[in-house]
Amino acid sequence: xxxxxxxxxxxxxxxxxxxxxxxxxxxxxxxxxxxxxxxxxxxxxxxxxxxxxxxxxxxxxxxxxxxxxxxxxxxxxxxxxxxxxxxxxxxxxxxxxxxxxxxxxxxxxxxxxxxxxxxxxxxxxxxxxxxxxxxxxxxxxxxxxxxxxxxxxxxxxxxxxxxxxxxxxxxxxxxxxxxxxxxxxxxxxxxxxxxxxxxxxxxxxxxxxxxxxxxxxxxxxxxxxxxxxxxxxxxxxxxxxxxxxxxxxxxxxxxxxxxxxxxxxxxxxxxxxxxxxxxxxxxxxxxxxxxxxxxxxxxxxxxxxxxxxxxxxxxxxxxxxxxxxxxxxxxxxxxxxxxxxxxxxxxxxxxxxxxxxxxxxxxxxxxxxxxxxxxxxxxxxxxxxxxxxxxxxxxxxxxxxxxxxxxxxxxxxxxxxxxxxxxxxxxxxxxxxxxxxxxxxxxxxxxxxxxxxxxxxxxxxxxxxxxxxxxxxxxxxxxxxxxxxxxxxxxxxxx
Length: 495
What we know:
Elements: H1 6-15, E1 18-21, E2 24-27, H2 42-53, H3 57-60, H4 63-69, H5 72-99, H6 106-114, H7 116-151, H8 158-178, H9 180-210, H10 231-242, H11 258-287, H12 290-295, H13 299-307, H14 314-343, E3 353-355, H15 362-366, H16 368-377, H17 381-409, H18 422-441, H19 443-454, H20 456-465, H21 471-488, E4 490-492
Antiparallel strand pairs: 1-2, 3-4
């Protein structure tokens, strides 16, 4: 989508200290290079991963795994197994992140392994549907739970939820636009809040367990209700709960010492998340039977009401903070994918520009805002997520397949961190199995998801492949880039 004058603008910005557009000059600061700095330390990396994995799910509805696994004991084994499988995927991404030192995550790795067309299809599906819908859902959860203490025990008006959601989403976008440092600091605070909320559940639960409240664990491995046909769906729910371990790879270029920090942050984060998830579920079962857990609409709230009395009013606030942390981490990471895609020439050039004073990719942050707000106001977000969730695993499977492919096509590529081959193979098979399960269990929605992603093919040829565009379209694109550049005060990054 870049214009014919894009290279000229970039060259002017890179060689001089100003970009001139219609007589307006955006002067650079002379004492600092305009670039994204390496501000993601080990602690901030851990906070990004944990902060985006742990959303509202573990507090609200862990019953999908119990429902499909058929027993308490088997459900706990599924939680552990999903944690191990997610670790396999995270370790595969750690290898990719240390040998391909570019930000962008899935997009960058598919580009390196399979070329620009496949990468653009992934980018297109992300841009028009997956990411705005995902952000809208977690934002709505934030709006719902931040208002719950104010309206208890009455219902919350839908308009109030949407207003709170819009305010929350706007504040996240503003924060990410203003400062990378403050975004990372607040992410650390929100991650600590999530872990504190989980501790509020785990500690009383363990106390109950040591007091001898084990009646709900009797016959925990009763297999009478276990059906093999339900196990893949249990794993699907579990893998969804752990999704988010890949977000640090979206900001690799901003990680301090990525060869060491990326693998270490991933391993520490996955160990913490898996332990928290399993212990939280054990805590739930000290208070609720399997039947009561399945009947609860918000498991953490039910747990708190039974054990913590009046303090249970704080649980919705912690859930809201947890959702806010996921929103913040997602915007921080995804903006870097759009930044890299623009740098590769697959999105408008202005998205790869940096604010002259804030040193944030301002346009790449804001691109999500109008689309997410639109999703909040119109459209059936949840059905959109249903037929898009399988696409996530399809493309993650393709990325890990790309890791195996690069092992053979580029054996000399420096790999400071290298995992045993069985790790990506097992994870890749798991991803494609979940994709085929979606095709079998829900062919209509899966077909719609495929159709949406395949619209990326004509879009690629229209916007990227064909260089000879009509002059009016070229002039429009150039004018769009220049106007936004002036309004946002952004310039290409210094090389």
